[in-house]
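Appendix B. One record, verbatim.
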Amino acid sequence: MLLSTLLPKMIPLYVLVLLGFIAGKKLKVQQDSIAKLAIYIAAPVIIFHGGLRAPLNPSSFWLPLVFFCLPMLLSLFW
């Protein structure tokens, strides 16, 4: 059950990693340019896509609020 749920979500990730590896070897791409691409393009796209697909309910609203306020309060009173 877990494998049938997890596998379709993991295959695109591994295909993308494999394509990046092949492109890096064949095209002689610098590591810095791949890192910049990952940080400035891929990460925001993945985060935005995850935010769009997340179910909205009261518990999903409180979780970011708690993880923002808790460290802030700890830093004030530490």
